[in-house]
Task: structure prediction
Amino acid sequence: MSRQPPTELMNERAQHLLRVLIDRYIREGEPVGSRTLARDSRLDLSPATVRNVMSDLEEMGFVAAPHTSAGRIPTVQGYRLFVDSLLNIQPLDSVQVEQLRQELWAEETDSGRLIETASNLLSDITRMAGVVTLPRREHVALRRIDFLPLSQNRILVILVINEKEVQNRIIQTDRTFSASELETIANFLNAHFAGKDIHAVRTHLIDEMQQTRQDMNDLMMSVVSVAEKVFSGEDSDEEDYVLAGQTNLMQFRELSDVEKLRELFEAFNRKRDILHLLDKCICANGVQLFIGEESGYQVLDECSLVTAPYSVEGEVIGVLGVIGPTRMAYDRIIPIVDATARLLGAALNSRN
Amino acid sequence: MSRQPPTELMNERAQHLLRVLIDRYIREGEPVGSRTLARDSRLDLSPATVRNVMSDLEEMGFVAAPHTSAGRIPTVQGYRLFVDSLLNIQPLDSVQVEQLRQELWAEETDSGRLIETASNLLSDITRMAGVVTLPRREHVALRRIDFLPLSQNRILVILVINEKEVQNRIIQTDRTFSASELETIANFLNAHFAGKDIHAVRTHLIDEMQQTRQDMNDLMMSVVSVAEKVFSGEDSDEEDYVLAGQTNLMQFRELSDVEKLRELFEAFNRKRDILHLLDKCICANGVQLFIGEESGYQVLDECSLVTAPYSVEGEVIGVLGVIGPTRMAYDRIIPIVDATARLLGAALNSRN
DNA sequence: CTTAGCACTCAATGAAAAGGAGTGCTAAGT
DNA sequence: ACTTAGCACTCCTTTTCATTGAGTGCTAAG
Result:
């Protein structure tokens, strides 16, 4: 019943037509008909011939027709072939890279703000949503620890890690510690563990605890009991990301259904699914794409996600990316995501 | 041409009917016709009589008809009268208050998290958007200051204020300071200014600077030059708020236009207008409402804002509230906002 | 293999008709 | 003097139906 297949399963011409079709569809957002495609392709083919080719492409699953008398639009599989084989990605030209670097390095900031800036940059440039996971290092060097007594056996702990990140938390202790006691404990910890990996510190202290406490002098007793509280929260493994430009997604025709949009935004707030998806990209060694349903999450069915891991000193510590409608200008987005990931890594590195 | 006005400008019966109308409109969201209203009012009036009353109410500007053959819906003026005179607000019953308190006091947290929890609470309970401005105290007591040298003449400053808030910033100095120098400076500042108001410290230091530097010894020179950098950022006056439950707003029929919604969300991101509006509420001494256009911001035309200031030790330090469609259950929302403001104030207070 | 021709499909647009909820007005009832 | 039944009228909503036009698939000829 179907017309006889071309000699090669997918010849040059068909690929070219598919590329032109997707190009046009990405620009215009409307199903592309045979007449238009014939004209656009500059191949001097009649619409009828194009129709035959389209029929083949449809059978192969690369394009689909919304209804009988509409043109064709790419399927996920079509986009996949497009980005994998038909698209020649130009790295961002150096002027643009420099401009990106400027914006990212603009102010003297901590890594938290840097992440935010990166996310904003991504969303501003692409006019879609930007996402950057918080960096998460394997090795967390303790630089300094300080205590301040609060009321009711509570202690404010100030932790400086990785040279310049400041964390603070409040711990509840079994007994009251005086300011000078706390100072002694802090001095001890700083003297013994400054520069050490925080996980190492933790396991070391757990080992201490295993010993019968009889052996210890008062100082050590205090140190262990306080430090245990401090570092026990360390494994909380709270991943998180910074999202920017959600509102950009609201202007796309294909995402204009309020209910769908609500579900998408709720997935963003819930974070779990998106994080899970981003985690998958952390091991890819470059730009990675999820097109439409490829993500496996229904809320993202109409969306594509372009990601790249970023790293400091060779260690991948996070992922960033862009979320937009499946119909996005991949050739423009991919280099941007790629460059931003490199620049963010560099920026985080230089600030140590 | 219009029927003769009732003896009183707005009699008991008209008020009752207006209340019933708004009650019903808030519940159902559809224009209310005379038949329905006659039935609902339990006044044993015929639809025709009700129509006459509605005609009067319309002339007075309290209700409006979307079109000739629709029922009536409240105008902003109608809502205003409703909340000001027709609504008897019951304070939240003590069980609910207790429940709120539980949720707010659930964990041992810093004020930042507390604000977030409050915002989430507001949005969860009301199924609308919750907003809480960051607290901003007139008096900020310096508890402790610490310095850590970074590379390239940069210094990491850790500031503990108001007993338990931790701030950190990075300053760039003209020359390199050694760790021990920094320690000396910190000791000096801590010894002289701990417990003092941070603005007082700042003006004091500016005064010092006015003197010719000849008079100073080296220590003072260093102290002044570093402290100046630290405290100069203090007046940044950055207001901000925490918004929660934006997505809740997407399920309301009256806000279902994507473009309108986008503008609203963008106003939320821009923050300026919303902050300006919230600022107006900081001087009100209780719950304040902006209904529809009353806000003066077009993006909020379809929305109402219910706010209440929250305070610690009698000093108002912030505002919280709920944003939802004009058609909201004011009788339920107002007590919730009121109670949350009190509880947040109390929670912030107890943590000193 | 390509293409012109043609019948056919189907979304989109718009006009017309039907239905219905609710109003305003008038005149009669209390 | 207020209340109400009755009725004509308005205008939104929904449905139906015809029209249009873009685009297709198929066939037969080049």
In short: Residues 11 and 293 of chain A are 27 Å apart (CA to CA).
